[in-house]
Amino acid sequence: MHIPDHVLSQPVLIASGAIALGGFSLGLKRLERRLRDRTVVLMGIMAAFVFAAQMVNFPLLVLPASGHLIGGVLAAVMLGPWAGAVVMGTVLLVQCLLFADGGILALGANFVNLGLIASVGGYAIYDPIRRGVGGRAGVMLGAMVAAWFSVLLASLAFAIELAGSGWWEQLPEVLGWMALVHAAIGLGEAMITGLVLRSVLAVRPDLIFGVVEQGDAPPRWGRVALAGLGVALAVAAFLAPMASPLDDGLEFVGGRLGFLSGEEPAMISGPMADYSLKGLPDIAPVTAAAGLIGTVTVFAAGWFLGRASTGIASRLERSPEGPRSGGEGPEPHAA
Amino acid sequence: MRLDWLEGPGSAGGPLHRLDARVKLAAVVGFVLAVVLVPMGSWRPLGIAGMVLAGLVGLSGVAPSLLLRRIAALMPVVVVLAAVIAPTHPKASALGAWAVGGTIVAKNALTIGAILLFARVTCFRSVLGALSWFRVPPALVATLHLMYRYLFVLSDQLGRMARARRSRSFRRSRWAEWPLGAGLIAALMLRSFERGERVHAAMLARGWDGTVRSLDGPDRPETLPPT
């Protein structure tokens, strides 16, 4: 589900639209320089793939509902950051024009969140981890951590866009709720991304973007700085609800000065008012705990899956037949 | 899952199907803009917009129940967002939170309905023709063209793979769905990659130079025969 029209204010829509347009054309330019006439074919078919992959449902283990892969980080890991962003932009455009999923005017905001931030930002987190850890385990760990943070960063961006539409004083609260919900979604995204990459690494590790050409050279400083910024922002999203005393202080000052007085009756009479006000003190520790648990879980799962896939891959490479992609026949006994 | 929505021109083939795609694209964007610019709590323009949309649906011959079901499927997220926004909206003190929330929901239902109607009465090929007429970069239009072409191929392939997997696994736990589904995605991704390479080689062999050509230009109306 994407941002519909009529939720963000017009200045936010125009600003995000301009950023999206610039980002998309920059991505397309860079791709055409790299891929030349292959661009269109590869982007088209991978966009169709992402669309199809989003149809695979994963049951949530506790709720009678299911979720699906978003695919921004997966596309970036396989194709490179800008290609991932272009693929996601194409998917979003088709979803908007054909299925009315996400508004036409909010297309820019959706592309900023799910294309630029998820793919380009996610790659900036993935790349230093991959090079730092090295090998297949690096790919797995980097991609899973990046998938988890990309979902968080996208939700953070949405919270900021929402707040920019006239709800600045509610930003910490919106951030807290968004971060809490998306911590769970991000865990799922990280697990699916990791499991998909485990299969890819076992069969065609050469297809992963940049692994063959760049190897495990130390990460570039700019990438590390970007990754650090992204992680810091995501952490800030978890810590933001902790800043509730500050928020109350701001409201107190606003009430004293009179510039928030217009909102007061609505806050009390609104149907959601007591919900949002009472929710504030409870959610802060929960959100922070979810952030901590989620980060630790993703790191642990990435490390575990990375180790396991390294083991499988090295066993396969040592076996005389080479890697096996099919499932025909029983497993040969290890010599 | 949702591809059944994309049948191109519907079986009815009403007057809206035959209308130039450029006119329809401009009209739907204009409709969305007009609805966005309606101020909060003014129901009369929204009612007029709703009547216009209802009239167009009636003219098009698209089954209203189909549209309504699809709109209803997209509404929960809108309702949640409206409930978050409405209590503290700047206009909420004057109009009441329910009026603001109701306006947000009504506006979104109108624009979603308009886009769905547009998608239903315009085949995607002519949408792409209209996009390139409106000076959308050719690389993006060509990418969309190929994406649309392979959407059905890949989703059919995914369906076959999922069926094969179901027929091989006797017992499934909810936990097992995750690695199985991820394996499905990985296999589909590798096959898409390889298919992309084959398709590119085949296109080069047929003289591909980076532009998608078709026999009917963007200014021609729908030429697909009604199915």
Automatic annotation (TrEMBL), chain A:
Pfam entry (one): CbiM
InterPro entries recorded: CbiM/NikMN, PDGLE_dom
Cellular component aspect of the GO annotation: plasma membrane
Record membrane topology: Multi-pass membrane protein
GO biological process: transition metal ion transport
Superkingdom of source: Bacteria
Places the protein is found: Cell membrane
Key words of the record: Cell membrane, Membrane, Transmembrane, Transmembrane helix, Transport
Transmembrane segments: 12-28, 40-62, 69-92, 104-126, 138-160, 180-203, 224-243, 283-305
Main location: membrane
Listed Gene3D superfamilies: 1.10.1760.20
Region (Disordered): 315-335
Residue ranges annotated for the PDGLE domain, each copy included: 223-307
Annotated protein name in UniProt: Cobalt ABC transporter permease
UniProtKB/TrEMBL annotation, chain B:
Name of the protein in its database record: Cobalt ABC transporter permease
InterPro entries associated with the record: ABC/ECF_trnsptr_transmembrane, ECF_transporter_component
Natural source organism: Tautonia sociabilis
Transmembrane segments: 21-40, 46-64, 71-89, 95-119, 131-151
Subcellular location: Membrane
Membrane topology field: Multi-pass membrane protein
PANTHER family, per the entry: SLL0384 PROTEIN
UniProt entry keywords in alphabetical sequence: Cell membrane, Membrane, Transmembrane, Transmembrane helix
Keyword match tRNA-binding: no
GO cellular component: plasma membrane
Keyword field contains rRNA-binding: no
